[in-house]
Design goal:
The chain has 13 helices and 9 strands. It has helices at 3-14, 19-30, 45-56, 71-75, 109-121, 156-159, 173-181, 185-190, 198-210, 215-230, 240-256, 264-275, 289-298, and strands at 34-38, 60-64, 76-81, 86-91, 98-102, 123-126, 129-132, 138-143, 162-166. The two termini are 35 Å apart.
C-alpha cells in the first residue's frame, strides 16, 4: 500500500464515517489548495485538521479567530530591540506549514483579510518587508453556519481563495456508536505517527500537475463553466480561476485512484466542493450540493 493510502487509512481511524470528506481534503492538499470546512460546532472540523497535520508530518499552528483578533496576531510584529538599535520582526503563527484558522467567521473582516496575501501569494508583508512562508503551506479554516450569533460572513474575495468547501455533518449511527464507545480523540491524535513527509506531499503536487487532461474533458469543463454563467439558478457564473481550480482538484481525485488521466467522473466528484462556495443563489446564499448536482445533470458529457 502506498504512503498516500496508508495516510488516508490512518485518518479514517480517527475521523469516523467520513471517508469521502477525507478523500476530498487530501485531494485539496495534493492540488495545493486551501480548505474551508463549514459546519456546526462539535462534528469534527478541528479534529480533521489536527489529524491531517499529524499524519502528513506538517508543522502545525492553530489560530483561534475571535472578534478582537488583530492582523498582527496572525502575521507577527516588528519590535524595537535597543541592544541592536533596530526593529526585528517576530513571526506570528502564520509561519507554519498547516494553519488551522478556527472559526474564521467569528473575526472581523479586517482580521480575515490578513490571510488573503498569505493564501494567495504564500508570503506576508510587514512594514514594507516581504517574508516568505514555508513550503508546503496550507490554510484549513473552519466556520460556523452564518445564522449563528457573532459571525461575520466571509467576503467573496476571501471565499475564492479556498479551493474547496466541505461540510462534515453528523456521523451515521454506526460511526457515532464507535465514537461514543471508543478512545478519546485527543489521546488518539497524540499517539499518531506521520505516514508521509512534507517532501512526499510536494512530490505528489508535482505528480498532480502531470496528470493528463484530454481535449474532450476540457470541452466538458468549459460547458460546465458556461452553464453556470447562463443559469438563473446562480447570480454569477464560475470564473476562469474557478475552472483552473476544478481541473486541479479533478487531477488530484484521479491521482488518489492511481490514474494518470482525468475522467468526467473525477470532475463530477469534486465539483460540489469546488463550485459550491463560488456560486451564489439569488437568495444570497452559497449554493448547496443539490444545486450543483442539478447543474451536473443539465450538462451532458461530450
Amino acid at each position: 500500500m502506498s504512503p498516500l493510502h496508508t495516510a488516508i487509512q490512518q485518518i479514517d481511524l480517527v475521523v469516523l464515517g467520513k471517508t469521502r470528506q477525507i478523500r476530498l481534503a487530501m485531494a485539496c492538499l495534493i492540488a495545493g489548495g486551501h480548505l474551508l470546512i463549514e459546519d456546526l460546532p462539535g462534528v469534527g472540523k478541528t479534529t480533521l485538521a489536527h489529524v491531517l497535520a499529524k499524519t502528513l508530518g506538517l508543522q502545525f499552528q492553530r489560530i483561534q479567530f475571535t472578534s478582537d483578533l488583530l492582523p498582527a496576531d496572525i502575521i507577527g510584529v516588528s519590535i524595537y530591540e535597543r541592544s541592536a538599535e533596530m526593529f526585528r520582526f517576530h513571526p506570528g503563527p502564520i509561519f507554519a506549514q498547516l494553519i488551522l484558522a478556527d472559526e474564521i467567521n467569528r473575526a472581523t473582516p479586517k482580521a480575515q483579510s490578513a490571510l488573503l496575501e498569505a493564501m494567495e501569494e504564500r508570503q506576508v508583508t510587514q512594514d514594507g518587508t516581504t517574508h516568505t512562508l514555508p513550503d508546503p503551506f496550507f490554510v484549513i479554516a473552519t466556520q460556523n453556519p452564518q445564522q449563528q450569533i457573532g459571525t461575520f460572513p466571509l467576503p467573496e474575495s476571501q471565499l475564492d481563495r479556498f479551493l474547496m468547501r466541505l461540510a462534515l455533518g453528523y456521523p451515521d449511527r454506526t460511526a457515532e456508536r464507535a465514537l461514543l464507545a471508543g478512545d478519546d480523540r485527543r489521546q488518539m491524535i497524540s499517539e499518531l505517527t506521520p505516514r508521509m513527509s512534507p517532501a512526499d506531499l510536494l512530490q505528489l503536487q508535482q505528480e498532480n500537475r502531470a496528470v493528463r487532461i484530454s481535449g474532450a474533458l476540457l470541452d466538458y469543463v468549459q460547458a460546465l463553466l458556461a452553464h453556470t454563467r447562463q443559469s438563473p439558478r446562480f447570480v454569477n457564473g464560475l470564473s476562469p480561476r474557478a475552472g483552473l481550480a476544478l481541473l486541479s482538484a479533478a487531477r488530484a481525485w484521479a491521482l488518489l485512484d492511481g490514474r494518470q488521466a482525468v475522467l468526467p467522473e473525477d470532475v463530477q466528484a469534486v465539483m460540489p466542493s469546488v463550485a459550491g462556495h463560488r456560486l451564489i443563489t439569488p437568495a444570497g446564499q452559497m449554493s448547496s450540493e443539490d444545486d450543483v448536482a442539478a447543474l451536473l445533470r443539465e450538462v451532458a458529457i461530450p
